[in-house]
Design a protein that fits this description.
This protein is of the alpha/beta class. Helix content is 48%, strand content 10%. Bound molecules: zinc ion.
Length: 389
């Protein structure tokens, strides 16, 4: 790479407290950030579970006036943020506990942002310098508690929202959307069903893999990404096979955080293809990435061959080659029950053309290692729909 490309402007993540049982430190983390009345934001399903009630109680026991907001859907929308902001203001809250999978974390972070703004949330989309429009002083502090191991949103500086005006996924960005404190407790992911464990685990793989393949110069991210993938190779099948394997859960939790840490560098066409499917057909984000993964690898082959050969050596695959990585991905998908075609997820040939136009302008597209236009995306969709690798 030419010397003039050896440049970067890099941030690395935040205060992470990691380990089984660390959820017990939640009240102290809230106090550390100056909260007296946190609002715990989670999704509707999780709100029924004991772990949420216990988290709220642990705060209330030490006189933190903790509220609960759970009107968060998967593939969340602006209305989820608006309702949370209203509850935050009504309850005189002064901080957010973002608790759950990607949707709950993203909405919790977005609520923390929007309680201090007068502009609509779309004014803070990840474009040019739009983040400078944010009134930083109005933002509420956020403690993030991930309960799945996939999105890594606990260390992300974006919230992903579906914009119902044009059915696209948009990134809301501010450097301070990165939560100030993250509590990572693998015990919280013990109850996650096997098929969700598989799907979110593949999301973590797609983050590490797309970050490694992204063409910008960022050796810090590359180093994080390859170790993230080693952990996934060693531990994702075990976590899917036996959800109570705490060691597997712990390694997958940090691998997920590593994926999102690495993808500050950029993502690629896996996410570009996946976002229109989720925004229009409500397909699961991680599952969709998992299905399109090998098709994108093949499309990018020329640009990533050397990198993936080095990855293969590090992962101790059968040979140090692109083909060994591709075979590993195919075998892993099969072993954990990921389908081979987008058709199995309800994406069909008639979706290929309209989704390609959305994929072309997706925020993940510019960092794909090979330039990719609407016609390429259409071919990729048709390959993935019909299972032609
Ligand atoms: Zn993702």
């Amino acid at each position: 790479m030419a010397v003039d490309k050896l440049v970067g402007r890099w941030n690395y993540p935040t205060s992470i407290r990691f380990g089984a049982g660390r959820i017990g430190e939640l009240p102290a983390a809230c106090r550390e950030l100056g909260m007296t009345a946190p609002l715990l934001v989670t999704d509707t399903g999780l709100a029924q579970l004991d772990m949420v009630a216990r988290a709220v109680d642990s705060c209330r026991r030490v006189k933190l006036d903790c509220g609960l907001f759970s009107d968060v859907q998967s593939n969340p929308v602006e209305a989820n943020v608006t309702a949370g902001v209203e509850q935050f203001r009504r309850g005189h809250h002064d901080g957010v506990i973002a608790f759950g999978g990607g949707s709950a974390l993203d909405i919790g972070k977005a609520i923390g942002l929007m309680v201090g703004q007068n502009r609509p949330i779309w004014d803070f989309e990840d474009k040019e310098d739009w983040y400078t429009r944010v009134n930083v002083g109005g933002m509420a502090p956020v403690v993030a508690v991930p309960t799945t191991a996939g999105t890594g949103s606990e260390v992300g500086r974006c919230s992903v929202l579906t914009d119902l005006r044009d059915h696209t996924k948009k990134l809301i960005f501010h450097p301070r959307l990165l939560p100030a404190i993250v509590l990572e407790d693998p015990e919280l992911s013990i109850g996650l069903p096997a098929h969700i464990t598989a799907a979110v685990g593949m999301d973590a793989l797609s983050h590490n893999l797309e970050a490694l393949c992204a063409p910008t110069y960022h050796p810090l991210a590359d180093g994080v990404a390859i170790e993230g993938m080693r952990l996934i190779k060693e531990w994702l099948p075990a976590a899917v096979r036996d959800g109570s394997n705490l060691e597997a859960r712990a390694h997958m939790l940090i691998a997920s955080t590593m994926g999102a840490t690495a993808f500050q560098k950029g993502l690629g066409a896996m996410h570009s293809l996946s976002h229109p499917c989720s925004a229009n057909l409500n397909t699961h984000h991680g599952l969709t990435n998992a299905v399109v993964m090998p098709y994108v690898l093949v499309f990018n082959r020329q640009a990533v061959e050397d990198k993936l050969a080095r990855l293969a050596a590090y992962l101790n695959l059968k040979s140090a080659s692109f083909g060994a990585v591709l075979d590993w991905v195919l075998e892993l998908r099969e072993a954990i029950g990921i389908p081979h075609t987008l058709a199995k997820l309800g994406v069909h040939e008639e979706h290929a053309a309209p989704f390609s136009r959305m994929a072309e302008v997706d925020p993940s597209t510019p960092s794909n290692p090979v330039p990719v236009g609407a016609a390429d995306f259409e071919r990729l969709y048709l390959s993935a729909i019909n299972g032609r690798l």
